[in-house]
């Protein structure tokens, strides 16, 4: 069958691809360590599970409104008020099947053929693909390694054309863990206001900031910026609920209404049971989040210190999310591989450690390692990488 043009150009998610490869090797009986996963290794806090169970027994198993339960929208509005001092009305919120689908729907309702979206590199793998699926054109702007992988207002200004409709900002970032400061966000926000561009602020790693760093939503910085910002967030990373598939978008009421109309013809609604779980996530105790964050911070300290000792690995210490994104060009050169992709393949083949090549994030000199796995496993992975480097030099 001849497939539609728009999906022929689609690149499969490199993170899911490497996880699939690692799983296939595991199924063959190999002892594989997968550092590709983008999800916390903790189980969902028990009070959330219990609340969802109760909802199921009490009949919360039916269709909900397409844009989500009003009770959950209210919880999200309260969360934004408490955490970011941002005021929204529930009509400015849509609950979606994960943050990924919030972004997908947003680009579907926003973009016409040829509209441009500014995507800073390194980017989360799905941004450019989702923009293209909606007929748009991703315009890549390099977040330079020497600038902590962040783009500057000057770069943003220069990448704007008459077709620019939106820009994406992801802080803390997947894959780099970089966090934009208030001043940096304000400067970028100003440019977007001047050019009347929508800011898509993906805040899915909001709760995972370390060493006293604090997350700021760009929407907090002025009323003018807030008017043009669509916040994307959800419970996947914050509450260790990746499989529940609950995310949300908050912003301009007309855009939210269009996304809701689209949902009414595509998903109908996010899973009812998971929505009840998300209510408990936002309204219930937040202590488990702190515990997870402390565990991640401890691992980051340990893994970072060891990683930068490996010959050829160059890495700034990330401040958020749960990834390290070292530049490995020197490691690849030392082991005489022709590219980072080939080197990553060899590490999986010889040492059974799955890393994600940076090419999928628009940054071919780097690899992404997730430290969302136990310290014991991380130590073993580092031993294997060290051993690979020794054997191949
Ligand atoms: N945005 C970023 C930057 C992510 O890393 C991810 C997940 O990996 C998502 C969005 C999607 O999150 P969800 O699981 O809620 O769809």
UniProtKB/TrEMBL annotation:
It comes from Pseudalkalibacillus berkeleyi. Coiled coil: none annotated. Its cofactor is pyridoxal 5'-phosphate. It comes from the Bacteria. Pfam families: Aminotran_1_2. PROSITE patterns: AA_TRANSFER_CLASS_1. Residues 31-385 form the Aminotransferase class I/classII large domain. Its EC number is 2.6.1.-. GO terms for molecular function: transaminase activity. It is an enzyme of class 2 (transferase). Keywords: Aminotransferase, Pyridoxal phosphate, Transferase. InterPro entries: Aminotransferase_I/II_large, AspAT/PAT-like, NHTrfase_class1_PyrdxlP-BS, PyrdxlP-dep_Trfase, PyrdxlP-dep_Trfase_major, PyrdxlP-dep_Trfase_small. This is Aminotransferase. Belongs to the class-I pyridoxal-phosphate-dependent aminotransferase family. Gene3D superfamilies: Aspartate Aminotransferase, domain 1, Type I PLP-dependent aspartate aminotransferase-like (Major domain).
């Amino acid at each position: 069958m001849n497939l539609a043009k728009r999906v022929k150009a689609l690149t499969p998610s490199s993170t899911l691809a490497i996880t699939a490869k690692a799983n296939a090797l595991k199924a063959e009986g190999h002892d594989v360590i997968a550092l590709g996963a983008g999800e916390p290794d903790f189980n969902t806090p028990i009070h959330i599970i219990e609340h969802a169970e109760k909802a199921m027994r009490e009949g919360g198993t039916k269709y909900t409104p397409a844009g989500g339960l009003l009770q959950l929208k209210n919880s999200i509005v309260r969360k934004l008020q408490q955490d970011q001092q941002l005021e929204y009305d529930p009509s400015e919120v849509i609950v979606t099947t994960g943050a990924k689908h919030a972004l997908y729907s947003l680009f579907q309702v926003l973009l016409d053929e040829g509209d441009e979206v500014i995507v800073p590199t390194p980017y989360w793998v799905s941004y450019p693909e989702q923009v293209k699926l909606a007929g748009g054109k991703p315009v890549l702007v390099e977040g330079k390694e020497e600038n902590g992988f962040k783009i500057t207002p000057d770069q943003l200004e220069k990448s704007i054309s008459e077709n620019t409709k939106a820009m994406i900002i992801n802080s803390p970032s997947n894959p780099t863990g970089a966090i934009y400061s208030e001043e940096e966000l304000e400067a970028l926000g100003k440019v977007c206001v001047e050019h009347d561009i929508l800011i898509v602020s993906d805040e899915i790693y909001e709760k995972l900031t370390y060493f006293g760093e604090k997350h700021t939503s760009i929407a907090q910085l002025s009323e003018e910026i807030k008017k043009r910002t669509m916040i994307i967030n959800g419970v996947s990373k914050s509450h260790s609920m990746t499989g529940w598939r609950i995310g949300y978008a908050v912003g301009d009421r007309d855009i939210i209404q269009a996304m809701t109309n689209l949902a009414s013809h595509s998903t109908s609604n996010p899973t009812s049971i998971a929505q009840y779980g998300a209510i408990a996530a936002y309204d219930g105790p937040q202590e488990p989040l702190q515990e997870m964050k402390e565990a991640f911070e401890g691992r980051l300290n340990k893994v970072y210190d060891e990683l930068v000792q490996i010959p050829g690995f160059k890495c700034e210490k990330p401040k958020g999310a749960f990834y390290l994104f070292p530049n490995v060009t020197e490691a690849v050169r030392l082991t005489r591989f022709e590219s980072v992709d080939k080197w990553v393949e060899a590490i999986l083949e010889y040492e059974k450690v799955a890393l994600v090549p940076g090419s999928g994030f628009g940054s071919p000199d780097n690899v992404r390692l997730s430290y969302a796995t136990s310290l014991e496993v991380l130590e073993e992975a580092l031993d294997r990488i060290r051993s690979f480097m020794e054997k191949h030099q």
